[in-house]
Structure formats: structure tokens, C-alpha cells
Amino acid sequence: MIIAANWKMNLLGHDARDLASEFQKIAKNQSVSDVKILIFPPALYADIVNDVCDDERLSWGGQNTHIARFGAHTGDISAEMYRSVGARYQLVGHSERRADHKESDSYIGAQLRAAHEAGLHMVLCVGEQLDQREAGDAEKVVTEQIARALDEVKEYLPDLWDNLIIAYEPVWAIGTGRVAEPQDVFQMHKAIADYCTHSLGAPQRPQILYGGSVKASNAQTLFALDYVDGALVGGASLQQDAFSGIVAAAIAVQKG
Ligand code: 13P
Question: What is the chain's percent helix, strand, coil content, to nearest 5?
Fold first, then answer.
């Protein structure tokens, strides 16, 4: 199980420092085999977070990467730069970046390329809008997002699958308090798994995380579902209690 914290554009430096050391305690309180915790902090807090990571129970990654290694791209950061200061993971294709920065599937694929070439594990975020779900198109939208992104990294397949995690985040469930129904989560995760192995040639199904209003109170039900390998957590990752409750739910399911 992987429980990933996406801090998004939240926390001031001193808050990030406090929360990072709480995360270190949460990670230390469990045995190595239990749950892997990831933090995706604002890039400025790389050092703060890197200091508490051990890369066994706790690792971190960038929320976004440029597609080039270096160059005249003021304000941007490359995957290789992240790697050079200790990142092991890279978030790619979050719906907020798709919306705020008009990131397309092919650009997201190029980000996968950059992350893979930098030697990072990738968490590819996909998810449908509410109107797409209501129209019955959710699975089509999500599988196409995956296919189009992977189309950009064809020459790295099948090896790239080893380092690719998919995060299914229905856009309408993000930050709304409205979590997807367990049956819908199961169905989508299974559809993603089947699509990756049957249509995209993955040697085995990737790990698949669910994201969208995950809290301690709903985590255990989600984690008990087949094909759910953990969560990508936004709001609840900003509070130590809420986040440790989610980690505890993952441990409980794993042990049960
Ligand atoms: P919330 O947990 O706040 O709904 O955010 C989910 C998310 O976008 C994680 O990447």
C-alpha cells in the first residue's frame, strides 16, 4: 500500500517543517513492510522534506516537472533537478495542472519521459469530470488519458511500467468532500488494470491509488476494495491526525 500526501500549494515553511517531522514519526511507528508514505511538497520545501525521508518507509517527489532537463525556462524545475536533491517520485498529470496550466495528455506523456529518464518513479493522475461520468464516459476518458500519455514514451515500454503508479482521481471528488462510491472505485480500478495489461501490454497491472476526498473515516472501506493499492490525499494530508488515521486504515486492511 502507498499513502501519498499531495500538499499542493499549501503551508508556510515553518508549518511544512512541523508537518514533515510528524510524517517522520508516522512512518517510524510502523514496520518496514506495512505502508509506504510519499510526500509531494511545494518544491521550495524540498530540503525540509528530504531531511525526514529514509526512502524505505517515507519518500518524496515533485508535484510537477518541466519536460526538458535544463534551459531557458524561467521559474520551472526539471525532473533531474528534483532527483539531484533527493526526490524519488514525480507526480504527473494532476487535474489541477491540466486545468490551471492547460497540460495536455501529450505534454503529460513528455513529463513521464522526463521523469523516467531522470530515474524517478512516476504517479500518473487520471480522472473524469462529473459530466463525463454522468454521460457514461468515465472509463473511456480515463483509459484514453493513460493511452495518450503512454504513447509519448513507447520506446521505454515495457520497462517503464515497473516504475509507474496510476492515481485515479475523479475530478468531481477532489476537495469537494464527495468521495466516489466504493463500487465505482472498484469498477474503475479494475478497468484501469485490465486496460493496462490487455490493451497496453503491461507485464503486470500497475499499482493504482484512489484520490478524491479521502479521509480517515472513509479510507478503510476504500482500501478493502480489490485493485485499490492506496490513496493520493490532498486536504487530509495537511493535518497530522487526519493523515495518520488514513495510514492506520491502510495498515489495518493490510493486516486484516
Ligand atoms: P482532496 O483529498 O483534498 O480531495 O485532494 C485530492 C487530490 O487532489 C490529491 O492529489
Answer: 50, 15, 35
Q: How far is CA 72 from the centre of its chain?
A: 28
What phi, psi does 167 have (nearest 5°)?
A: -115, 115
Nearest CA to ligand 1 atom 7: 234
Q: Is 211 in the pocket of ligand 1 (CB under 6 A)?
A: yes
- Coil, helix or strand at residue 4: strand
With 0.85 as the threshold, say if the pTM is over it.
yes
- What CATH number does the domain located at 2-255 have? 3.20.20.70
132 CB within 6 A, ligand 1: no
Q: Are 254 and 32 in contact (CB under 8 A)?
A: no
- In which residue ranges of the chain is pLDDT below 50? none
Q: Cell 466516489 sits at which residue?
A: 180
- Residue ranges per domain, the chain? 2-255
Q: What is the pLDDT of residue 32?
A: 63
